[in-house]
Amino acid sequence: AADMGADLEKVLISADEIRDKLAELAARVDEDYAGKDVLLLGVLKGAALVMSDFVRALHVPAQMDWMAISSYGSGTKSSGVVRIVKDLDTDITGRHVLIVEDIIDSGLTLSWLVANLSSRGAASVEILTLLRKPEAAKVHVDVRYTGFEIPNEFVVGYGLDFAERYRGLPFVGTLAPHVYRS
Ligand code: PRP
Ligand code: MN
Ligand code: MG
């Protein structure tokens, strides 16, 4: 993992807390999807770490596929206009799809994705996210499995980046203001 250095302000969610929470969510998913074949859909790149730990905590048979999507628009905020950079390899007709995300911020990425997947004839589309910022929500998204609700602060680590850095931290933390001001 990256060196914390002076870039981080504080640890918001520790590696232990993440591990325990993913085990708890996996137990719920095991129960809800008993007897079904679930397709876990990871949203690159942020969800890579959640996916790799979550799939190992699950007991129901699960497949994995990935999409990379990019929000058009200037700046760091997503605009809600989404472009598929890498599509699924899997035909999801009749499949039970569980989207795996690292964070829901404005909700624009996921509301677009849920509509897109539903139009492909999935039997069900649900969402699992490690983090959610309730204060930042611009659109309503129905999330079945939420790890932690967090304040509206800029967070990095465990998949989450700032300018592609810090994704490899084993915990979720906040950046010192000097990092994103400079
Ligand atoms: C981040 C994050 C979510 C999305 C949430 O991805 O991983 O996918 O933004 O934002 P929203 O709810 O406001 O739409 P990003 O677009 O930064 O790509 P990345 O996963 O490759 O970092
Ligand atoms: Mn992402
Ligand atoms: Mg990002």
Outline the structure in words:
The protein is an alpha/beta fold and 182 residues long. It has a single domain (15-152), classed as Rossmann fold, CATH 3.40.50.2020. The chain contains four helices and nine strands. The strands form two sheets. It has a six-stranded mixed beta sheet. Strands 1-9-8 form a three-stranded antiparallel beta sheet. Strand 5, helix 3 and strand 6 form a beta-alpha-beta unit. Helix 1 packs across helix 2. The mean pLDDT is 92. The structure holds 1-O-pyrophosphono-5-O-phosphono-alpha-D-ribofuranose (PRP), manganese (II) ion (MN) and magnesium ion. The site of manganese (II) ion has 2 residues, from loops. This is Hypoxanthine phosphoribosyltransferase. Pathway: Purine metabolism; IMP biosynthesis via salvage pathway; IMP from hypoxanthine: step 1/1; Purine metabolism; GMP biosynthesis via salvage pathway; GMP from guanine: step 1/1. InterPro entries: HGPRT, Hxn_phspho_trans, PRTase-like, PRTase_dom.
